[in-house]
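BUG: 3D viewer hangs when loading the predicted structure for this chain

Environment: internal workstation, default settings.
Expected: structure renders.
Actual: progress bar stalls at 90%.

Input used:
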Amino acid sequence: MFKRAMGIHKMNRSEFHLKFGSRNPIVLPVIHVLDHAQAKRNVAVAIKCGCPGVFLINHDFEKEKLLPIIKSIRQEFPDYWIGVNFLAVTGEFAFPILGALQAQGTPVDGYWADDACIDERRADDDQIDAKRIDLVRQKSGWQGLYIGGTAFKKQREVNPQHYAKSGRLAARFMDVVVTSGIATGHAADLQKINTFRESCGNTALGVASGITPENAHLYAAHVDLFMVATGVNIDNDFYNIDSNKLIKLIKTIGK
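Structure tokens produced before the viewer hung:
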């Protein structure tokens, strides 16, 4: 049986909600970054709407161009929770970058990897990729929250009969297990979410596609984190948050 290596405290569900100050699902908008001004404007909208944090992602350019924007946004919002996603980059390559940013005075609060490299086809004690990423995380010195994609959109397809094993394995390696629907903007199957909730145990569970003000209530009882973009963006606008939609979503899950 795999035992987590010493050196990193893995956050549980209660600690996750305590950190963000709410028992309801935490809403963290995902900002598809274009430049500093656009990112700053959308962070300001998220703050005004009452969101405790955001994710920045380099959807349209390489991760190296995101780094100076991370630094400038951190300077603009020194105390706000800021997570990042380097598109298609696992923690193995992200954690050293995040550790270096932290050492240089630019702390990043969370890293979301599209693929946490959980392999339900392998034995419990043979998760070689996830173990390697875990060791890199420890060596990096980075102190943020690790949100790992499991049975996630645009990654290797996982047979639904293996969702339970995927969730159980993932819960050993990350602070928040995040899954999704089949594609961006597509809501996750409710049975999939129920299975992940049961198998993740005391580890927080996130959903990262298809959440809208209209369907969020269906997931709220089982999900700890909503990572939202399409569902709260301005219609036909991939890059800017609609404050009315975001406020409606927050009110929906706060009932």
